[in-house]
Amino acid sequence: MARSLNKVMLIGHLGADPELRYTPAGVPVATFRIATNETWRDADGNLQERTEWHTIVVWRKLAELTNDLLKKGSRVYVEGRLQTRTYEDKNGIRRTVTEIVADDIILLEPKATISETVPQPQQKATPVEPDTEIEIPEISEEIEKDVSKSFDSSTESEASDESTPDKSKEENDDDLPF
């Protein structure tokens, strides 16, 4: 059986903020339109330009992210597939539309622009009284003895390493983690 391919890749600017809705089952769906421009020179050498508008449909989590991150004028890369559907308008006229169902959207703007458009969550700081004392648990004598024993044994082994004639300082430097 022969394979087929339905793939769309667009780079353009949003004409308006995305519109987020929910299906009766509670599934988020966002729609927005992007403009792509084509320029060419006609036979007389004059620069011509044509703008094409594309309707983008985004489902589920990507729909919610789209609604949060994208705004009118945002430059985006959209990847998806073409889908044609038929519906009946308010006047009873049957209409057919072709849309791009997006699988992937990449915002093509600096991160500073994103942080300006996305509302940041407010963090509530818990006030600390300046006269509040912090209790520091005391270290038991046994732990202190263990720590001092391990420290003493490590310094003895380091001293014996330095006095060993076949190990040079350069070799010891190679063992350092930095």
TrEMBL record:
Residues 130-144 have a biased composition (Acidic residues). A motif (Important for interaction with partner proteins) lies at residues 173-178. Residues 117-178 are annotated as: Disordered. Transmembrane segments: none annotated. CDD domains: SSB_OBF. Keywords: DNA damage, DNA recombination, DNA repair, DNA replication, DNA-binding. It holds the Pfam family SSB. It comes from the Bacteria. Gene3D superfamilies: Nucleic acid-binding proteins. Plays an important role in DNA replication, recombination and repair. Binds to ssDNA and to an array of partner proteins to recruit them to their sites of action during DNA metabolism. Homotetramer. This is Single-stranded DNA-binding protein. It comes from Candidatus Kryptonium thompsonii.
